[in-house]
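Structure tokens please, single chain.
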Amino acid sequence: MAESNYPEPSGDVSDVGSLNPGQLGFMCGIEVHQQLATGKLHSRQSGDLFDVTMDTLPDDWPRFSRRLRAARGEGGKVDIAARFETKRNRSFEYVQSPNSGLIELDDQPPLAHDTNALDIALTASALLNAKPVSLLQTMRKTVVDGSNTSGFQRTTLISTGGTLETTIGPVGISVLCLEEDSARKLDAVTTANGEKVIYNLDRLGLPLIEIATEPDVKTPEHAKETSIALGRTLRQTRRVRRGLGSIRQDLNVSIACGDRIEIKGCQDLNWIPRIIKLEMARQLHFYRLANELRAEFNLPPLSSDRREDDADVEFEVAERVAAKLPLKFVDVTNHFADCKSKMVENGLAESHTMLGLPLPNLAGKIGTKQLDSDGAQLPRLGRELAGAAKLAGVRGVFHSDELPAYGITQTHVMRVREQLGLTDSDGFVLCLAPKWQAELALESVLFRARNAWHRVPQEVRNVVIRKGAPEDGTTTPMRPLPGGARMYPETDIPPRVIDEDKWQSVIDNLPMTDAQRQARMDNYDVSADQKEQILAKELDDQFVEFHHNLPAKAWATVLLENDAVDPRLSSRVLAAKEQGEITREAINQVITHFSNRLPQFEEITAYAKQAGLKPADESDLVGIIESVVAERLDFVRERGFGAIGPLMGIVMQQAGAADGKVVSALLKQTINDAIK
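Here you go.
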């Protein structure tokens, strides 16, 4: 048994900023999943994503329905997370986007790894000083939540043992893998036979780099810094996708008196410290609740360090608690015939059943909604029970600590308590749903309630999102933490050797560092703001390659304004402007006109002439400007150089196409001569 280094944990869960990571035995590792800017990993389909919703899905995109079941892993066991998903009785509908074919539908064996994706993964490994494995063996990772049509995700270990430097110290890189991204969830529909989930297959199979760190993260703030540093390292390859959803962070968090929790959905890096602190508070709260409940049952208390747990003692506690909290469903539907709650009325109208689950000795322990000093919900058992129930597909449950409420009166509560045979110290939970689903939901509730006498269960949790952003930083359960049983070899993809020559080629062709890129941009006469934007948007390679002796500031402006366009087109149009073939104001118009193809220089000049975008001759401009100034000489003498602005529009209208900068300079000179 490991020696404990942690005293009884201190800290106020209602003030997460006061929690001390060191005193609580905080541990944290990070997993980053980054999409690569290539085609799909094992099918050679394009990596295009389609901005569609259920309301905008094209009618001609085929749809396919499936049910998935868990398979045994290499060791002959069914993974706990896969077994849980199978219980949820869900069906799946897949929408076949134009970039998905037989491989995405699991109707054809996969192809070998996309070469570009593999090169990027090896490059990222080298940037993190990780060591490549000598043989790439693709594995199948069981996933039966419907996000993979096959029921598994293909993943390949690329390298191990790297290091990421941060200001607080090095963070070890445990593994770097190359894997397939999952399908995108479009909607979920509740049916009488269970939930139906609709997925779009456009994202399925996109290559992802997955990087998992060692638990070397020291503080919640350090977790944010580490995530930023990992993202910066991946972007250094200049071959990863950018934009919302292209990179995802998972947090593995624990404190000594709690246990490992994997938190998904951390899209906004600024939220990471708060999410972690709230998880620390949650684990601390349930450790204290467990010891309070154990004391009432005269059971041995939990240690402040999970390493001191005795399996035999915990098994005995579980046996005692299971005997006190048996699995007992009671149909209490008849007590709610006169209930005025809309939720209850609607459920009964659909012939749903109201089941009751007794929770002996838990009255007052389930809790009601309260907020911490920053407005986040405080941890409470009731929220955990509701989260467990929702995994069965129900909208929620009612529990005794919050009733009467929601249209359920004290009379209804007393009827239920009487039928369940409860004392004042006992609680209960109600679930209104189709009977099979209510039973599944209350079974999950019971198992989570029994776990209140133990540490928090190892599980995967998801950040609560509202309107596209974290609601308050709290999380809800998704599924049990998966184990090793979910992995087994992929037999359709042969192993691949990474030899010394291949690795040396990667080392010899590493991308430029951020410092080198900044130093290169310093060689060009652009403003500090332009340089910052070009580097931030990763346009410096295009800037340098297609500069072609163009004025640096003008080229920077055109490139930044048309960053989604082929830089060769932008460069040619600016060159035409510099040669007097188009006006300065017409640059973006010409680029837009040719945005779908790359024209020759002669086509650009011909279009400019035809569209009236070629600048007027300077001699013609001088005549127009002198005439305009002469006609308004009194106005010019009254306003001086202040007349330039009002006269610009008049000159431009008469000149047709003209360069505004040239017109302004000639106007200034003509006005200067007129007012001498």
